[in-house]
Amino acid sequence: MNRIARVALPIPLREPFDYRIPDSLADQVRPGVQVRVPFGPSKRIGWVVEITDHSPHPKLRELDAIIPDSAEIQPDLLKLLEWTADYYLCGIGEVIESAVPKAVRNRKVRSVRWVRITSEGASGDPSGSSASARQKVLEHLRQQDHPVPLRKLIESCAVSDSPVKTLARRGLIEIFDALPAQFGTPESGETLAENSWITPPFEPNPEQVVAIDAISETVEKKQYRTFLLHGVTGSGKTEVYIRAVQQALDQGLGALVLVPEIALTPQAIERFTERLGTVAVLHSMLPDSERAVHYERLRRGEVRIALGARSAVFAPVPDLGIIIVDESHETSYKQENSPRYHARDVAVMRAHQLGIPCVLGSATPSMESLENAKTGRYQKIILSERTNGRPLATIEVIDRRIEKKSVGGGGLLSQRLIERIRETLDRDEQVLLFLNRRGFARNLHCLNCGHDLRCHQCDIPLTYHKSKSRSQCNYCGEYKPIPDQCPECHFHGMQQRSPGTERIEESLVQLFPGVQVDRLDRDTVTSAKRMAAILQRFKEGQTQILVGTQMVAKGHDIPGVTLVGVLDADIALGLPDFRSAERTAQLLCQVAGRAGRGDRPGRVVLQTMQPEHYALGCASRQNLDQLLVEETAIRKLLRYPPHGHLARILCEDEDEHKAQESARTLAEAMKECGLDSVKILGPAPAPLERLRGRFRQHLLLKSDHRGPLRQVASTALKTKPRWASTRITLDIDPQNLL
Ligand code: ADP
Ligand code: ZN
Predict the structure, then answer these.
(1) How many domains does the chain have?
(2) Is the pLDDT at 6 greater than 90, yes or no?
(3) For residue 21, what is the domain's CATH number?
(4) Which of 239, 324, 360 to mutate to test the pocket of ligand 1 (most atoms within 8 A of CB)?
(5) Neighbour tally for 311: CB within 10 Å
(6) What's the angle, vertex CA 503, arms to CA 499 and CA 507, rounded to 5?
(7) Residue with CA at minimum distance from ligand 1 atom 4
């Protein structure tokens, strides 16, 4: 009897498709290989995920062919991808698509020819031959300390390939195939086994030693355990990661290090490569072709360390020995389109499946992680002090309701803060200002009729960008020219409200003539390069004041910064999301952690309208204890994570009624499941009621247990909504409820 291959296709359908395996391919088709299959009238490329001998479908078509030279997915990774599809109730094909770079899927990663000099060629007389072309090639290669791509060699020496071939025949040079260069640095394509361990100019401190020993022991024993490395900002977590990774390498194992997208700067990459040798970088800002080369080098075992953002959790590292998730509280680890996986949770599962340790590092762990540490599921390790013995910054809270006197920035630069900035600049130190709102002003508002200029697709206020002289939507990007009168009542006098980073920058330039001010936000940072350049100028002291959004808050280690100002600490507190206090406390602690990392003490000024709020209290004491107490009470009562599980179903339609009616059909179908342990809330309009022209209704599912929650959620997915035009999305463990 014919065997059957279950094939995952890149479509958002949960079940793989079954195909008969022709006899001729019987011994080559196995899970993880890429195959071509008939699909409707055409052909599709997919991945075999399982071999079976029965199928519920009576008439199966035959699998076409195996794709030659495809990037086979190893069984352990396939198992992880399947778990992800199953847990998040999405298609395995979709998961594979986000795990494997496009160029790898399309087999576009080809080896190129490289040339290197042999020891014979490097020494002694150039072969006795005086032919100048050969001479030129040899001379050129002698000046390189690594192999050169053949094409480049021919180009730089302006020769044909015949002298190169002759030299190779005589054993003076060697031509070989390897993957093309990575990341602009010339790469040999050789196996990089010997890592250049550079000793740091310090010994790990006692707390670091405890952490390193605990983690190393599990690496050595190949034992699953999740560590929550809770270390204040500047406590030397990276050193712990590096030593743990080194331990894995010493044992011939690979390592996976995840960092948030935004923190994957050239400096961060340098910090790892300097100590550990070559790492493969998987970053969405890299062109897909480059990412694909890094991916391939990992898969072939040429590089043993993967360093990357969210999707790197699926990096094909053979013999993985440890997984590290830095800044593990970051929300960017959750993918906000399908498949909606959380890389932190997938990382823990991957470690569990492989029986290896996983380290979740953070100065401000999430409530979920703290709870897991409390119940003993995670082992907590604490780094309580900064490495240089510096105290954490002193915090000064400015109540904007009392301290009304402002000197600029549309009311956001208080007199007190300006004084602090001036003192800091006088001491030749640097200032970091944080405002989580970009543009010049959040909106334009009519003083006569109260009309707000809004995006007609998203129904949110448009952000006024002065430099581009237009108003633009932060969600869909649509923009409008700035009206000189109110579009509703024609009153001349539209007022700007809620100033943004652009406005602050302008005010600072006026207030401090001659001082270099720069801005870091999504409007000034259009590429990884731009971001690196702005940070580099700041680090070198060419810029004295840097203003920015969340981008400035995270991970940067700039020793000259002694003053951090938070201009409007309350922005995120007002969001209708149960995590808003947690997010605010985390973000403020992170920003505060940027001050005083060098040898001079730091100071933080927090401007707020709600100084009594516990999220502000956490920030001013720089620990999350109070948050834990207050939030635990609320979340236990309302059964929110970590004291309950959550899923969200979003129904979007261009027609408001259709969105409502579709949501209602799903709600009814779910109620019919009769699982009382799952609470179904809604349908109700989502906080962002309209986005990109679609009306949004949502349903929240709450339960103490994951099993029934997922059962009810998958019923919703199988239910046909009242209207076919309604787009349905399911989010398991949602991070974003807007
Ligand atoms: P974190 O990631 O916890 O915020 P970092 O890893 O960036 O902290 O460490 C802060 C600084 O302290 C870095 O410049 C690092 O090189 C340095 N450092 C780390 N460990 C030690 C140590 N044991 N002694 C002295 N300096 C250290
Ligand atoms: Zn919009």
Answers:
(1) 6
(2) yes
(3) 3.40.1440.60
(4) 239
(5) 21
(6) 120
(7) 234
